[in-house]
């Protein structure tokens, strides 16, 4: 059992919080049916308390056909029966709060499920109906309307338009089962404002906004032109009015937003973080950077520069439910991440990847701002290669079977090494198969190991909470040998990361707080390791 962490009580907790991401289907199975659920999550809240996180973000737990892992929502006010009930969600939120852990929920505003009552009514109502105005229905092109209304590229592989029996087409930037909403319609805006209030009334502390830059579309639905601004469906100016109205609601409840905003333009990215819009947005530049000192330093500098003009804190993340796990990625020849380069059978050195992932954990937790920690990263879980006949991710199928998809980072967690299914659930086989040897990563086994990844994370989060200099505030780069990142934080806190090929001397210091591994016999920092010092 880790030492207890004092609860956060300040209003600006989100500026330097450590937030744990839960993918409910794979976190913990309370009823033994092979699917993670809210009962399982409640039973494992003590793990999050021992770890020392400030908040937990749940990816969608709403009623859904689960075509895209719950991001195809059929009812935003109901919990999917596979996960439990609304009453259980309310108990979970309250129980987490009693343990000093805030809850953040995931809102998916760009699209709904094709089983959502609105879309089912729209298909039934026919062309020209008010019901269809809530979506993007259009006649097709060609002599008989047999061609899609435009040529927009998909966020997944495959087409962005699907034809219904009466001949009209509807827009979906993701799968056909996820029709895009028409955010120019006032009813769509009112509905989502009501959804926000619904969850804020139930005590959630914040909302993560899925695909936050995609909601508003060019009303003309003109053909896509590469390199021409503005993009017809990414970062349209009308988004900012939506988020200003949302911010006013959040401020009533003291709640916060984090947006999923993928934008290469730093100035336009920062617009989402103005004081009357979103509180924070995910930083994907850092996440996708390779394990190279120049690239990581540039990502850190660029991120801090993006946030500085609006005074918003940066967010740092190494992995999430869409991205190849850190241990595996950092053990590959190409240590960057790009959806376009994912492939089956990519070799990796797990020992090397684990060593680098441990160092990356200390690097990330020492940076200014908040940190998001994806479930299982604290256990050092590798990416699993899921058998082709067990893959469920639509990215795999829409690629024609060439993309392995995202299921490899969604394997159910191991809790107890000697229990059935490594303690994930007690009866049925998990919805995704756990690889051979998965039990070696179990929480109970790592809890007793002073050198484990879990122990490292627990120590790091405790120091981050109790030692001066961490969290929000300035960062100063320090002189360092080639291949080494060294920076100072307030109160003499130092972080050194050795990305070179040989051990390096540590800077002068009074105390060593934490090392990602073991120093050499003469006190030098080995390659692919990191250390926190008090200068």
From TrEMBL:
CDD domains: AmyAc_OligoGlu_TS
Molecular function per GO: hydrolase activity
SUPFAM superfamilies tied to this protein: (Trans)glycosidases
Pfam families: Alpha-amylase
Keywords: Hydrolase
Residue ranges of domain Glycosyl hydrolase family 13 catalytic in the record: 21-410
PANTHER family: ALPHA-AMYLASE FAMILY MEMBER, NEUTRAL AND BASIC AMINO ACID TRANSPORT PROTEIN RBAT
Sequence similarity: Belongs to the glycosyl hydrolase 13 family.
Name of the protein this chain belongs to: Alpha-amylase family glycosyl hydrolase
